[in-house]
Amino acid sequence: MNRTRVPTALRGLVVVASLACAGAASAQSATEVELGRRLDQLAAELAKVKAELAQLQQQRAAAPATAAASAPAAAVAAAPPAAPSTAQGPGLAEPTTAIVSYAEISYSRPTNDTKNTVADLGRFVLGYQHRFDEKTKVVTELEVEHAVSSAGDRGEVEVEQAYVERQLSRDYSARAGLFLIPAGLLNENHEPNAYYGVFRNFVETAIIPSTWREGGLQIVGSYDNGLTAQAGVTTGFDLTKWDATSTEGAESPLGSIHQELQLAKARDLSVFGALNWRGVPGLHVGGSLFTGGATHGQSPTSARVTLWDLHARYTPGRFDLSGVYSRGTISNTAALNAPLVGNPTLIPTSFDGWYAQAAYRAWSNADYSLAPFVRYEEFNTARSFADLGAGLTPAAAPTQRVTTVGANFYIGSGVVLKTDYQWFRSSDANRFDLGLGWSF
Length: 440
What we know:
Strand order of the largest sheet: 2-3-4-5-6-7-8-9-10-11-12-13-15-16-17-18
Low-confidence stretches: 1-35, 61-93
Distance between the termini: 25 Å
CATH architecture of the largest domain: Beta Barrel
Largest sheet: 16 strands, antiparallel, barrel
CATH class of the largest domain: Mainly Beta
C-alpha cells in the first residue's frame, strides 16, 4: 500500500501547536503579544501544509495510466510501461494518455524437417490508455498477427482489449467492455519480455487459449494483505463453431470455439472468478474458474464449458520458479458428437495440462542481463471422450511431453532476445528457435 510522506511543515506544525498550548496554560510565562505571534505562526504553518497536500493530490491525479515494467530476470511487472503522449486533460499537470505496444518476431527451424523453417512477425500490438480523471480510464489494444492481413493472407487484425475501468473505492474497481480473462500466469501478462522462450508455453495456449478475452463486466478487489479478487459475467464459448473435419480442435479445444466478441452468441452467459495472493515478497499464488453454457439455443443439446487452473510463481534472489496446472471439461458431448461420428476431430469431454519452469539470472551488467531457463510440460487436448458405443468412441489422444531449454537476453527494460531448443517426446517435431521482442 502506498503511504503519503508526512510533509516537513506538518512536523513543524506539531511543535508549534505544542508551544501554543503551553503558552495558553501558563499566562505567567507568555504575554498576549507573544500568544498572538505564536498563533500567527501556527496559521502560516497550516497554510503551508494545505498547499503541500494540494500539490500531492494533483500529482496523484496526473499519475500515468501504467507502471514501468522490468524484465522477468529482474522481477517482471504485470504490465508493460506506458510511454506518455502529449495529450493533456484540463487541470492536470502531466499527460493523461499513454501509448502502449509490444511485438514478437521469430525464426523456427525444425531439426527433422528443415524445409518447413519459418520466420514470422507473429504479433504487433498498438494501443492506448487514456485517463479521463483520477478514477476513470479506458484501455485499448489493436493486434496484427503474421504481419499482413487480407483475404488472401493468413494474418488477422483484431481488438485485443477495449474496456473502461472505474475506481469505485479504495479497494474496488469495475471494468466493462472487452477484457482478458484472469487465467493462469500468462493470459493477462503475455508481452514477450514477460515470459521465457521464443513462443508461449503449450499449456497456456493449447489448454488455456491465449490471448483469451471476453466481453462483459467484472469487479476487481485489491486488498492490503496482497490479495486480488476478480469476478464477472461475460460472453463465453460457442460449440456450434466446432469443425470436426479440421485439426483445429485437436490443437486447442477452446481456442477453436472462442468468440472474441465478434458478433458473439450471448444467449448463454458465463461467469468467472480468480484469486491471486502476493502477500510475501517474490511469491505469487492463485487460481481461477470459468464456466458457462456454450450452445446458445442453437442445438437441441445444451452443454457447459468449464475451465479452471492453479498457478504459482516464486522469485527468490536470482531465481524465477513457476508452474501451472489447468483442466477443462465439456458436458453432454455424447449427444453433440453423435452426428459427427466418422470425422477426425470429435469434441472431447476433458483436456488438461501442467508445466514447471525454472530460470536463473546468471549474468547482468548495467542494463543487460542473461537468464537461462528450462521448462517441462505435459498436456493433452483430448484426455477423454464420452462413450458413443463400441467401435464409435474415439481413443484418448496421446499426452504431449515437451522439454524446452533456452535463454532470454534482456536489453534495458523493454527489449529481449531469445533462443531455445524444444524436445517433443511423442513426435519428431523438435525445433530450434530464435526470437526478438519488445514492449513499452
